[in-house]
Design goal:
Blueprint (H helix, E strand, L loop, with lengths): L1 E10 L2 E7 L1 H6 L5 E5 L7 E9 L4 E7 L3 H7 L6 E2 L1 E6 L10 E7 L2 H4 L1 H9 L3 E8 L8 H6 L3 E6 L6 E2 L3 H9 L6 E5 L2 H13 L3 E5 L15 E4 L2 E4 H4 L2 E3 L5 H7 L7 H8 L8
């Protein structure tokens, strides 16, 4: 059993859980993920590592309540436990001195991109971060990401905080102004990563996206997380989760996410993109 050391409610439906997992924390690196089971009868779900503490032996994860398992996780309190917690899984993010980088995130990505931004800055990069949410209430992790970035631009769809709009607008503005960006790291919904990759492709900027398709075992054996990248089949759990956003077959990935729809009308709000209408 893996004990919950701390719980923080980032929004009414998004929570940060700090889990006691010393063996995972010992080897965790930016961009990796864990697979957990809440109880012995629960499903296995992948969650990106949002942070870790080597001394405490803990891993922080961010949970957005959108289904049965994430709902169970959302009800856990400090002192509760999860049955299984496996990791770190996947390849670490490629951290190097690219000189100027953009970190673009929304949703859970606002928290999980922090270790990447922090490592990039420690490697000598100038880090520009751009985050987006529908309203001020949906924004979280601003302080943590600000500390890991040289500049931070926040946008909200209703204009209640920061700039009105979406991540695309400030990103394109920076590029149109000729601001130097040598590499982009993007974490968020599939649709958001697809659209951001389309913008950066116009400017020839290599873009790294973090893919979390349907996963089961996390070892590449089941093949459930297969994605098409550059015309080749890859497994996100062992070949990723990071891939070149310009080579991902986004339409195929979007279609595969709808393979196992359950109570479609109930999850419509959680999964349908507010910008393009796709799942």
């Amino acid at each position: 059993m893996y004990r919950i050391l701390r719980r923080e409610d980032l929004t009414p439906t998004v929570h940060l859980l700090e889990v006691e997992a010393p063996f995972v924390a010992r080897k965790a690196q930016p961009g990796q993920f864990v697979i957990l089971m809440v109880d012995e009868k629960g499903e296995r779900i992948p969650l990106t590592i949002a942070d870790w503490d080597h001394e405490k032996g803990s891993i922080s994860i961010v949970v957005s309540e959108v289904g049965t398992t994430t709902g169970k996780l959302g009800r856990l309190k400090k002192g509760d436990s999860v049955a299984h917690f496996v990791g770190p899984l996947g390849k670490p993010a490629e951290i190097d001195n690219f000189v100027n980088v953009a970190c673009v995130a929304m949703g859970y990505g606002m928290a999980t991109i922090v270790p990447i931004a922090r490592a990039l800055r420690e490697a000598g990069n100038k880090v520009r971060s751009i985050i987006s949410a529908p309203t001020k209430t949906d924004l979280f992790g601003i302080d943590r990401l600000s500390k890991a970035s040289d500049t931070l631009i926040a946008t909200t769809s209703d204009g209640s905080y920061g700039e009105p709009g979406w991540v695309i607008e400030p990103l394109r503005r920076l590029l149109d102004e000729g601001q130097p960006i040598n590499r982009a790291f993007v974490v968020g919904s599939v649709c958001m990563m697809k659209l951001v990759s389309a913008v950066t492709k116009e400017f020839g900027i290599k873009t790294v996206v973090s893919l979390n398709p349907v996963m089961v075992d996390g070892t590449g054996m089941c093949g459930a997380c297969r994605v098409s990248v550059g015309g080749n089949t890859k497994f996100a759990c062992v070949d990723g989760p990071e891939f070149d956003g310009h080579e991902v077959d986004w339409n195929l990935l979007m279609a595969r996410r709808c393979t196992y729809p359950v109570r479609l009308e109930e999850v419509a709000t959680a999964y349908r993109c507010q910008y393009c209408g796709q799942w």
